[in-house]
Amino acid sequence: MDSFFTKEELNKLRNIALEELRELTAELDSVLDRTRKNTNDRPALEEMLRIFHTIGGSAALVGFEEISEIGTKGESMLREHVEKGQISPDTLAAIETMRNSLAKFVNEKTPGTK
Amino acid sequence: MAAISPRDGEISIEVSRDHFTAYIHVRHPAPGGREATVEDVMNSLAAGGITHGIKNVEKIQMFLDNLELYDNTLVVASGKPFTHGDDAKIIFHFECDSRSVHDVDTGGMENVDFRQMGTVTSVETGDVIATKIPATQGEEGITVHGQKLPGEWGMDIALVAGKNVRLAPNKRDYVAQIGGAPFVSNGVLRVDPVVLVDENVDYSTGNINFAGTVVVRGSVMDGFEVRALGDVVVENTVQMARVHAGGDVIVKRGILTRAKGVVSAEGNVYAKFIENSIVEAEGNVVVENAILNSRVYSNGGVLALTEEGTIIGGEVLAFERVAARTIGSAANSRTFIQTGYRHDVQKRYLETFSRLRAIGDELEEVKKDYARFSMMVNADLDKVGAIRTKAQKLLKVKKEIQDDLAEIASTRVFNHLAMVEAKESIFPGTTVMIGEGRYNVLKERPFASFKWDSDAKTLYLSSYDESAKGLKKAVPRSSTVLIIDDSRSVRKTLKLILEKMGLKVTGEAEDGEEGVEKYRELKPALVTCDVAMVRMDGIETLKAIKAENRRAKILMISSVRDRKKVLDCVMAGALDYILKPFVPKKVTAAVRNALES
Fold it and tell me: Is the preceding omega at residue B182 within 30 degrees of 0, hence cis?
């Protein structure tokens, strides 16, 4: 990917991806709230699955390997639960850990953020 | 009856193909079974022969305690990949001109610094004029199995010790065997004895014929001749004169022989401009500015690729390639460009062919005369006999010319890679011939590139994959794209790739519904569409667009997990698919194939 794009272009794409990841983290927070209140909220689970799917795809494109892995793992864990229409407490806890890793990554990579 | 013990947790090992990474996968125990332990992991690694780069026990324990988080898989050992060594390089101990810096093939000449061309320095007998720094070997690697792998060697570089240069016993130093001027051309280092003409070659110097390199600080004036076994370097111009070099000819200003003189080289010819002249080169002809109303013949390439590079009028023949910023002019100057044949062979072929045709015409006339006279009642038999004798002689000559032509044709090898390029424009009035193909340019063509397809026996004209940057003309509909994807990051990345291909992204949509609306409005040549979208997924979007236009060209973008859906899309009419995370090369190939389909 690197040799196709110039350094400036790659930086620009990474900034766009970071912005998108920030928005997805915020969406994930909102969905997690709903899921904590009701672990049988299937639409919320489907939305969570979509968010992790998007995270995995966007991050991989610009070389954010660690986040791409989180996206793929989250998606993989959620598929089973979406089919059942229910999420287990362990899985919810794991998702929250992943959410924290994602937020930490975005904050660290965004310039000017503490 | 003995009880069956429940299955304990299981460890499996996977090693990457290059043997530098090892993974462990853990399978949970059956109810009642024992969880896998660090000891189990270490035993499995030992059994698999994995001995190097193993993670420490604490990390393995953390993994076993948090299997869900790691999706039951861990990189448990990492080897050390081997590295590549440094490439060999040549250090020149004299001031080189641009020819030694850039490989003199037609591909590298766009960046030649003409101001540096023809720099002449002086060396003494015994001087080390160049030194080769050999390639090095990279660091050795070690696999997870503890196997050592040697580092890769860097690439070697070839520099031949040419005339008056010898390679020292250390095989690294190149030593001058005479005093003179060192030159590097086409990968050969040589030292030429040099004769220096302080001003012009004119009546004060007479003609020059030298078994070395000739440097003329002024011009070569009308009616004079310079011949050199080495290079000829002219600081000013070549007027109506003859110049021939066994090496290269470098004319720092212009060649203006007014079609009376000839500049020729067994190497390359470099000039700032060529006007109304005849130039022949066994190698390349490279100009900084223009080739105007000249006859230029090369058995390499003819290039005018710096900013003002243009070819206007005259004829240019090259074996490999003719390339310039512009070819022809807005005033429709008649310009003839031909590539694919060696110019000397082609000239002989065409001349011989002309002679054959002329003989054929003459023979026809003689036959008519013979027919007329022999029909006469009181025909003059002597005259008839004379005509018959003449016809026989002409037939004999015709046979000889036909044999000549056959012999030339056998050496007239066609270069299938021959091409003609106009990096900016080619203008009406220009004729391009490659092989048997002929193209008369009737309107201005930007970014034109001509190639000959021997199988189809067709001369192809195509456009360059130039960036859209700077293009002010309207983009044809045939290169417009609509991107449908719910990820902004994916849309922007795809857009950048497509624009670098010279395509125009006329619209973006976040979901299938918006995508179908935009398709109706924009009618793009191509659509890229994500498979997994929330509001109207990829397959529904595809079907809806196909319902609008059954010929719509659609590429699906998907992750590996959606493979089944992708196949469904292809069955529903998608042209192809691109897997995420996508690689630009694969995107460009898929898009090109789709647009050409």
Answer: no
